[in-house]
Design brief:
Radius of gyration of chain A: 23 Å
Number of domains of chain A: 2
Order of helices and strands of chain A: HEEEEEEEE
Transmembrane segments (chain B): 12-32, 38-59
Number of strands of chain A: 8
Strand content of chain A: over 45%
Structural class of chain A: alpha+beta
Family (chain B): Belongs to the SPCS1 family.
Number of helices of chain B: 4
Shape of chain A: elongated
Oligomer: heterodimer
Largest sheet of chain A: 4 strands, antiparallel
Organism (chain B): Aquilegia coerulea
Largest sheet of chain B: none
Number of helices of chain A: 1
Strand content of chain B: under 5%
Helix content of chain B: over 70%
Order of helices and strands of chain B: HHHH
Radius of gyration of chain B: 31 Å
Biased composition (Basic residues) (chain B): 88-99
CATH topology of the largest domain in chain A: Immunoglobulin-like
Largest interface: A-B, 20 and 26 residues
Function (chain B): Component of the signal peptidase complex (SPC) which catalyzes the cleavage of N-terminal signal sequences from nascent proteins as they are translocated into the lumen of the endoplasmic reticulum. Dispensable for SPC enzymatic activity.
Amino acid sequence: MHSFGYRANALVTFGVTILAVMCAMASISDNLNIPSPTAHVQVMNVNWFQKQPNGNDEVSLTMNVSADLQSMFTWNTKQVFVFLTAEYETPQNSLNQVSLWDAIIPSKERAKFWIHTTNKYRLTDQGSNLRGKEFNLTLHWHVMPKTGKMFADKIVMTGYQLPENYR
Amino acid sequence: MDWQGQKLAEQLMQILLVGFAVIAFGIGYTIGSFQMMLLIYAGGVLLTTLITVPNWPFFNRHPLKWLDPIEAERHPKPQPSVVTATSKKTKTSSKSHQK
């Protein structure tokens, strides 16, 4: 501590160390928040349902997605990434997950939303197993913090079924 | 900066930084603003830099008291430069005489 340079160096080093500790504590404080999100998806219409020339089934849906994710937001939350997947079982695969729609929620104010949308990404099966198929719609989310650990969880909504015939 | 001043500077630096960190985290968490925490802490670091890094007069209140150089005064160093100079002079003079 005998010179200007030594004092400046010691201060910066100690200051940055404390900053790291503060960020770690901010990340730990996220565990105190227990979120209670709700989500509801209604399949309004099957726009079309067809077999592609290569033999794979493809379906287009119109959905009402409503969710309240406000309880996920803490002081250390930068944004929340949500995506909706269709999940079903086929003889080939025990779990098929197809992403239908996604969004980035940048603030708590926009975390309670309602959207009427068709599937943003194609719902295509590996094969022709979709006729009459029962499937789950699952809302996944990743809570992205400003510092520290990222949290991920999901809500599974069951009881959806595709039509028996192509249209 | 004297020894006492260096100790004071280091202690001040550590106490101030930890203090500002605690205040910043407390306020940030209470009002739920991460940005406010960073701003308060940044201000604290700046203030601590101004207080502890420059060599302020209050870090120099305990100057070292060196003993007076008594012994050196009693036995002054012999000054060989004078002797050599005179010998050189005599040599050169003798040479010039020979010429």
